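User: Can you help me understand a structure? I only have the sequence.
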Amino acid sequence: MMLGKRLPLYIMLCHPVFNYVSNVAASRLKLGIFPTAYTSALADCVSFHVFDIIAIKLLWWTWHDTDPTIYERHFWVPFTSTLYRLTFSPTFTLFFYGTHKVMTGKRMLQAGSFLQETASILLTGLLTFPAAVATHFIPLYHSLHDALGASSEVCVLAVIYLYILIVWVSDRNGPEEARPRKKGKHPWKDELTLVVLIHFLTFAGLVVFAKPESIVSTGVHEPLGPCNETVHFYNAIGQVVSKRKYLCPTDYDEGYMDFHCVHGGKAPPGVHHWYTICGTPYENHAEYITVVWGFCLLGLAYYYNLLACSGLDEAPNKKHKTN
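Assistant: Let's start by predicting it. Here is the structure, written out as tokens:
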């Protein structure tokens, strides 16, 4: 944990993998920067969603119980977690490829000089967060959810449908180079394919064999404390919202965890940032398997079409053999 316990290491270690794999896979459609960003966002989202579902059930992390932004859930995963991937991923891609194009004048995955690539990375890192909030999260979530009262689920579905439409319309008129399999063999069995297979097969196995009720997690969680203290803050469109300052041990709605494995079977008294929580059994194991396997199959099918049925990676000094 870094930056005042606000930056879990999995964000530093796992998020770049999701971004890289989805971006390179999406670039093989040869659709240009704008459609590629939303193709990548869908790939990123389906990859991360199975991770999200399993992670919360196995107590790899926990969510704040009363934060209004993450209150609406799907298998204990906030809809806004999915929306976060759908909005920040394309913004990152647009800035990454856009600044690269401006700096180097080259195509998306063709390398420029060290200084050009460094400038592109720095600009992308500095601009992605504020731009994602202003251009995606506010119009696609806060304006619909907070201002107009739409549910988070509706916001997420609307964004997914919009992205599918963008990708479908763009791909209908895709370039000939995006379909090399029509002319011969496609060398798609590479490291990206292996990463995708390992990812989805791992989570397909975890949902079957992992025993969440036997998990004991001791570490940093939502601060535990008095039930009557609240904090007020502004959301992204200036509304004042509130949440409990602490997790209330006698009145919380987080069905993936409890305190049955703790001495005395209840949370310790007082204020605690570091404490022990216990996993809970599946309410309906078959349902979890169906959902996770469904997303895994969807992800495998989507990535197969990107990796095996689309174009080749950009290579300035090397041509792929396609006979």
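Now, to help you interpret it: The chain has a mean pLDDT of 89. Helices lie at 9-27, 33-57, 79-104, 114-147, 152-172, 191-209, 285-307. Let me know which part you'd like to focus on.
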